[in-house]
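Researcher: Please translate sequence to structure tokens.
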Amino acid sequence: MSTEAAHTKRMKVGVVLPMGENPESGHTSRYTEIRERALQIEDSGFDSIWVYDHLLFHVPGQPVSGIWEIWTLASALAEATERVLLGTLVVCTAFRNPAVLAKMATTLDDVSGGRLILGLGAGWHQPEFDAFGIAFDHRVDRFEEAIAIIAPLLREGRVDFRGKYYQAANCEMHPRGPSSKGMPILIAGSRPRMLGLTARYADMWNTAWLGRPEALAARREPFDAACRDAGREIEVTVGVNVNYSQEDESEKKAVDEGKALGGSPSDVAAALKGYEDLGVSHAICALNDTGPQAIAWLADAFRMFRAAKIADR
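Model: Translation complete:
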């Protein structure tokens, strides 16, 4: 989507939910806590909540950790909340059969009353693929076949696809979800081939994780080129690091270097306005502290951002 067109729309702001184990603190977010955070985010006026898809994290020299399974959690949150959009940032297409994944997404969209944003990606963390017996080779080839099945099933209700990795012969989607055109599809990627697939199939593109809005321009150049080649305009969404607590030297350094937002709520509000001015349709905030005080602090920034937007009209 062009910057000029995006300026006519209000930028949405969402928050990434805690999903499971925090290896640094040793804390595990149980569903009751995740639900409380989701409801606090909704009550604070934010536009969206976001969950992500991993099976485990195994970084050399660190203990193995993990998160809760995304579809089960997202389904519960769809029932618990009433207004906020529910986004996946992102579902790994390699973890599930793509036609079945489309069926799951349609069902979740119906449970949520049409509030789902379906974020998709190819995956990147090989240890979880290996541990769960999932092929890691030719990830983009597999993703290309998966999206060629998922997109038409969601948008048109049928697909007839026979590929090297996936088959969906005369597959139809019944019943259809709340929208005849399906939910918005978001794709996260940065390399040329993934950008090309985004330009071809997606409604939204996500780039992450950024801090100050000045970093967006370099990311957008190849994306804009891919969109021009495809003859399409696609919404730009940005995953934004936000450091509420800066007790750790690395957290403070990230803010100082512009790799994360921080400081006062007005500082964060100004940065959000900067993203909006660049034509971003949705800022997705990942807090380094997901406690209730951190969410309340970010909510103050969000209200300041919205108030400034209203004052500009």
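Researcher: Any highlights?
Model: Residues 207 and 220 are 9 Å apart (CA to CA).
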